[in-house]
Amino acid sequence: MLSQYLISGELALSPAVATFLFVVAVLAGTRYRSVWKAEGSAAQLWGCGLLAGGCLLILGFVPIAG
User: What global pTM score does this model have?
Assistant: First the structure.
């Protein structure tokens, strides 16, 4: 399964996976903001923030297959 994402020996994201990660990052960021404004628990802030940040880091540093 991982071999379909390998392009010339390097890891690359398919456009569908990249879109999914972007949507997850936007939703997690929105949830982070709503929890922050409502002064919710720190655990929710950390969870949403790490999820959004992780998705954006993956999108930023892993190339997208064309």
Answer: 0.81
